[in-house]
């Protein structure tokens, strides 16, 4: 038996202002301009502006959905798998290695 496909909500892309770095997140909307949550960037009014620096919609760049690996999709296969990590996973890897290196350095004081 074939079961009907379950409808999953589309993941909405975030857009970042290239002028100030503000990120419009569709799941949060824009309280300052009375934009309800769940409004995709494409459906924002034509006269909508960045709430931080008042830049036009054309100053925004698509940065993809939350938790997506950064970078171009065609480059994700390179870099020993590190390119597939999300920004949070990369932070854990980087800072974890720094802490581990610091602990090894401090352990040298225990040598006689």
Question: Can you walk through the features of this model?
Answer:
With 112 residues, the protein is of the alpha+beta class. Residues 1-9 have low confidence and may be disordered. A 3-stranded antiparallel sheet has the order 2-1-3, with no helix packed on it. The protein folds into 2 domains: 11-66, Rubrerythrin, domain 2 (Single Sheet), CATH 2.20.28; 70-112. Strand 1 and strand 2 (23-24) form a beta hairpin. It is built from 1 helix and 3 strands.
Strand order of the largest sheet: 2-1-3
Number of strands: 3
CATH architectural grouping of the largest domain: Single Sheet
* N-to-C series of helices and strands: EEEH
Rg calc = 21 Å
- H/I helix tally: 1
As for the number of domains, it is 2
Quick overview:
The protein is α+β, with helices and mostly antiparallel strands and about 110 residues long. It has one helix at about 85-105; strands at about 15, 25, 60-65.
